[in-house]
Amino acid sequence: xxxxxxxxxxxxxxxxxxxxxxxxxxxxxxxxxxxxxxxxxxxxxxxxxxxxxxxxxxxxxxxxxxxxxxxxxxxxxxxxxxxxxxxxxxxxxxxxxxxxxxxxxxxxxxxxxxxxxxxxxxxxxxxxxxxxxxxxxxxxxxxxxxxxxxxxxxxxxxxxxxxxxxxxxxxxxxxxxxxxxxxxxxxxxxxxxxxxxxxxxxxxxxxxxxxxxxxxxxxxxxxxxxxxxxxxxxxxxxxxxxxxxxxxxxxxxxxxxxxxxxxxxxxxxxxxxxxxxxxxxxxxxxxxxxxxxxxxxxxxxxxxxxxxxxxxxxxxxxxxxxxxxxxxxxxxxxxxxxxxxx
Length: 342
Ligand code: MG
Hints:
By secondary structure, the protein is an alpha/beta fold.
């Protein structure tokens, strides 16, 4: 595939209901989308960076800058056959994993269409439906009411080792996991904590790639890993993390980042890999969006499963008219020239 142009665009999507975590409250998502225009199909990717650098150091505006100035230009005019070629082409640039992931995943998206194969198969997946969970608050009350449902807690790095006695109290809730209870960039102290908790620790923020996963597992810092494709820099590294975890008997699940349908469809494809054995929080479109930018919208069955599309590519059509309507800035990059458009 020859990359003829790359479009960066920011859309604004209002949430059906505000979304609140310990990082704060979100009422509208600013989403950076990447379109790779090839001489064949058009691939789409979503940068999952937040509006602010609270979940990680990345956020929408620096991601746009990194893509426009450093990440996208080397691809313009080039022949790229596989999405998996992307990491090496961006290897000189440190960090900016969510920005890199958006571009790499757009190339995989195009590749799947060019090969006329479902994206999930291209990634090496085999599951035909994926189990889903959702974010809830006040889990203590929920556990009291439903004693045997799978329940997890995402601590978003809210604790320190001084609070170990408090953290031990979580064991009574019989949780599947407690996610990233300590510092966002730590696994050494998580290993110390894990020795003292019955509840399994899941690492999220601290895992940026397969090497981190290997180190965390060898230290005993976690028994579960949350894979967010943007956090690790794209599908190639997400697959590598999955494989390290599989080899070490550590189950994984796919974490959502309040994605539009584009990122959501990519999460579904990734979740079909065989070690994604725990429910992810890739939920239905209507839970967050009045109207999603893909069709059909992502739906969850009453039993809590998303059926994986069997059609070629990402399996969902892009609603280009709606995307244009939601676009607040756009830039088309071509080899040797770039143009801004409203
Ligand atoms: Mg988390």
